[in-house]
Amino acid sequence: MKTFKEHQKTVTDQVIGALNHGVPPWCKSWTDDGSTNSMILTHRNGDTGHIYSGINWVVTMLSPFDSNEWFTKNQLVKLTGKRMPIPYDIFLNEGTPIVYYNTASKVVDGKEEFYPVRRLYVVWNRDQIEDLPPSKFDNGHEMVDPQTEVEKYLANLNLKGGVHRGGDQACFVPAKDCVLLPNDDAFENVEERESTKAHEGIHATGAKHRLDRKKESYAEEELVAELGAAMVCASLGIPLEKLRHTSYIKAWLKRLNDDQNFIFKAAAEASKAAQYLTQEHIEKAA
After folding, report:
1. What pairs with residue 104 in β-bridges?
2. All residues at 6 or more sequence positions from 212 whose CB lies less than 8 Å from its CB, including other chains
3. How far is CA 174 from the centre of its chain?
4. Model-level pTM?
5. Contact predicate 68/43, CB 8 Å
6. What does the domain layout of the chain look like in residue ranges?
7. Nearest 5°: CA angle at 225, between 64 and 272?
8. What does the alpha-carbon distance between residue 275 and residue 210 come to, in Å, rounded to a whole number?
9. pLDDT band (50, 70, 90) for residue 140
């Protein structure tokens, strides 16, 4: 098993390679398999249904597999009834390490102190394993209208300045706490339209009275927005095939080469932002 430092280097190198080839891991072409599951683009544990987030979302998106379902060895043993359900060569060389995060505590000078715990474990994609039962998550989910959902997300942000339509700008204006968007018919397709709304919504989550996200640079904030929008779109079944802001690739590559924690931090911030945009305010309003 790799150490966490080795895992950081591997993931960083993979992201660098993808960006150098113009195919960032959060932008992929998708095949319509006829599923009615609105979460089909979001990678998850195929046994528990747990949706991957943060760097684990990026890592699974980097994979070449068509399936979005992943399993531990113990889960595969349970689901297949086989003592060794993973082909030997795949078991040795083709598992995918992901990170388990938790919090532990210890008593120091009579006070309980908390500290983060992280460990790596290996998962395998459904496409790598024979004799798995059909997915238990592919049925029973109603399709959603992406436009309705993203508009709802923006509305639930309670932007003080609201959302303004028209013109040729798409941006979040912190000083006025508002989002500017072109009219819907100005976009080439649905994917570009809704991903742009999600992108600006992610920017808005970083405001001081929301997540108060610290911005080291415009490039870092744009990476958070790119990743966060991709996570939101994946949860709605919206495929993304290109970056919104290619001008930041050079800056991202420099940071990735200088700091192997850069993509891990950005992915964590993006997950927080996507969760805030899609869930937190909706739950509060319910």
Report:
1. 115
2. 206
3. 24
4. 0.83
5. yes
6. 4-128, 146-285
7. 90
8. 12
9. very low
